[in-house]
Amino acid sequence: MSEKVLTPPEHVEPLVFTRDQLDWLPWLEPMAEQDLTARHMAALVDAARAKSPYFRLLVRDPEVLEARTRTDKDIFYNSDAGLPRAERELAAAATSRFNGCIYCASVHARFAATYSKRVDDVDRLLAKGVEADLDARWNAIVAASVALTATPVTFGPEHVDRLRAVGLADAAIVDVINAASFFNWANRLMLSLGEPSATGAAANR
Amino acid sequence: MADVIDSLADIAPGSALDTIRTRRPQARLHAQATYDSLFKPASEADASKRERFAIALFVARLHGKQEITAHYGKLLEADPELQEAVRMAAAAAGSQGPWGRYPVGPLSAEDKPGAADRIALPVRDQLGERIAAALEHAHMLVYHPRDAAPAHLQALLDAGWSTTGIVAISQLVAFLSYQIRVMTGLRVLQARPR
Q: Which chain B residue has its CA at the smallest distance from A175's CA?
């Protein structure tokens, strides 16, 4: 007798890309909070993540979740040289927009807007998609993220040249590669293990 | 053990990209730790190594990168029949992503519909039902992840995968989507000196 997927409670499905705070509802049973051992808590890295159904589902494989999380944090938060945080978030948002992950795009569009203060440009990316005209530097970062996200990957020397032409050093280009590649990891988990909901914070505002 | 991304991207110790990668030490270390946990798992109860290697080889083949395909082919070296069945399944399933449908609404104008992969006989029998179902799921994750729906997970459960096993193989496909892109990007950058 096989297990059954979860049926999410009634909720409002977001129908557009947005910077609003969304919820995420799992399709498979997360671990119960009271069943989390010290090993699971270590794998969550931040204790607050014990409240998140997404992380309590992924913690069923604690070794992989912990390594995933530490990879993620270094790519986005390590401020030693490289690309400014706002533009790492831009790469994450563009990747999520192109793959079609409404949940991931909402989180990283918020971060991109917060760190860059370019709210209108971020909203244009969400509304029009990855062809939106932002400025030469952001267009180059978005185009590189899209080329890295295509399967098979279409990223080539022309993308490197374009990033260099708008002022990115090679350390910053590596950050673009890491950030866009990482969201090809994150988008696939978020999209396939559950769904976003506009109820909660967004609906209560 | 050698760092798999460095090795697949041909990054030599002391090279310019090696130095740049040193500035993101946790990302480098833990991408390798992810690889080790996925392919030398502490437990095979929910997903065996044989199953993991077969899924990885299929995903590698769908990305059309020779170095990656060779690497994951090697992990399955001891099982040439399974290797060949995966090759046949991948050869019949090539596409270009990302595509898929959005929830019905304003984004429907951006829909790029396509057909889910269905592995036919006799390859399906050669793979066995668990691996065949996993490869069909991997095909969706690789090319059209925005089509994901609960029915895809139910198909895996019905084929005998546990919830924990589904988490493990989802991480495997998603991690490879990362690893292949980092490796490809670094190779392109390294081949284009200033």
A: B24
